[in-house]
Structures are given as C-alpha cells and as structure tokens.
Amino acid sequence: MYNDFMKVSIIIPIYNSENYLDKCIGSAVSQTYDDIEIILVNDGSTDGSGNICNAYASKDPRIRLINQKNAGVSSARNRGLDEASGDLITFIDGDDHVESDYVEYLVSLMKKDHSDIVCCQYEAMNKNGSSSRLISGTEECLKEFLASNEISVSVCCKLYKKNLFDGIRMPEGKRFEDNYILYRLIAGSHSVTIGYQKKYNYVPNPSGFINEAYSKTQMDIVDAAMEQREFIVKNYPALTGLANSRVIYAANRCLVKMADSRVYDADSVQRLKPLYKEYGKDFLKGPSGRSAKRFSRIARISPKLAMNFYNSIKRER
Length: 317
Hints:
Layout: E1 8-14, H1 18-29, E2 36-43, H2 49-59, E3 63-68, H3 73-83, E4 88-91, E5 97-98, H4 102-113, E6 117-121, E7 132-136, H5 138-147, E8 158-161, H6 177-187, E9 191-198, E10 200-201, H7 220-235, H8 240-261, H9 266-285, H10 290-301, H11 303-316
Parallel strand pairs: 1-2, 1-4, 2-3, 6-9
Antiparallel strand pairs: 4-8, 5-10, 6-8, 7-9
C-alpha cells in the first residue's frame, strides 16, 4: 500500500459556492503531488457554481464533474466516495482552499509513518518544534480524538486510506454529518499521524449552517455524540468517561447556540437535562476549560440559568 504511486482522490462537494469556488478548485488543480483526481460534486447549485465547475472540467482531464439534484453535503461526499478511483481520499469543502503542497505533505507523512489517517491543521499550532506525531493502536487513536483538539472532528484536512470507508458513508439528512462517522473511521485504523503544519484554509461562510439561528436540527450534534458514546461503551469501555464528556460538549453547544439566537426551545432543553445529570461529572474531569466546566455545572442545575450566565459573560466582553 505504501508505494511511490498512490493515487489521491480529492472530493469537493459544492453548493452555491460561486464566491469561493475559483480559489477552492484552483488550489486543488495546483497541487505539487502529481497522481490526483479531482471529483467535483455539484449538489444542485442555483448560482454560478455550475459554470465555474464546467470551465475547470473542460480544461483539466484530472477533473471529474458530477451534477446531481440538491441532496445535501453528505449525499455529495458519498457520491464522490462511490466514484473515487484513488488509493487515498481527502475532502475539501467548496468554501475552503488548500496550500499547493497539501496533498504532498499528507502523503509524505503517511509514507513515513505507515499510518492509516493523516491530519494537518487549519490553524497554526506550536508543538515545541515537533513537526508531526504518530499515534499507534486503535484505542490510543480514539483516546486522542476524544481527549484533545489535535484531531479535529471535521473530515476535511485529513488523508485516509480508501478502504476505511468500506461500509461507512455519511448520514444523509443530518447536520454535523462529520460527527457521525469520524470516530468510526478512526476505529477502523491502526495508526494516525498528526501533522502540525497548517495546510488547509477554512473560510467562514456567513450564510453557512454554522451561522444559522438555533433550530431543532442543531440537536443532531447531540444525537451523533450519543451514537459515538454507545459505540465506545460497547467496543472500548475504558474510554467511556471521555465519550460521556463529548455528550456534554455537544449539549453545551446547543445551549450556547440557543443563547446566541435568543431562543429557548423547551423540547430541546428537556432532552438535554437528563444528559447533564448522567454525564456531567465526566465532563468536569475532562480537558475542557474552566468556563466550559462552570457552564456545565450551572446547566446541571438549570439549563436556562446556564444560558443566562453565558449571556452575562458575553455582555461583559
């Protein structure tokens, strides 16, 4: 598997990204690593994204353009996976772009360490001069994923052996789709390399989901955390406390989103209350900061009080 001729499939899901797409696709076609295919999945865009895709596909034979009816980012990524012919897989979102040596950097680390997944950064990290770190053993990889922020939950900014996706696809119709599968991909690996160089450029999109007001679909992050917890409890019980902590992290995010949106969704809060009672203590033992732990302590007593606490801190800033 680790030879000099590993083909990399770059999968780019696209929906109404015309303002970002030239930079995104341009960064993919400019890769210093030669053996690539670029799979553009146009997910029913209604702006000029389709024309931009057509222009690039017409002049670069490495690009394969797939047009489909709008079905969401999970469907687009899954279609890309189904069509990919490479040995290795990486994802770039249509709003983002990568450095010219993005693929070369990830492949070089994978070859050096014989790892199954390689990560790079979308924010600069200073690790006392270390250029990368190899984590060996499936349970150790999952522990690192659950306990630190060095392996982000995003499926982007990573390189995967294609066979890790055998039997695994992203859930369609769900928000926070990455949260539903990344732990399963890590569970299928024997080693993960964390590269500390910034090679992926995340571009905040003002109209993206992350900036939407609170709605019940935000609770998908909690559902994903609960599915992850069930998997961990069943297969890696020594990591149960960390998985419990991730449930509270997801619950905190929902309450904070409600507070930011000036929304109090009683149904969502009722779902969150027992989670704080059951898993809150493990969150307090975890790696989160003091403010997050204080927030969760208050939420264990009263989610509404925690939201008020958050808003008061926000006003002071």
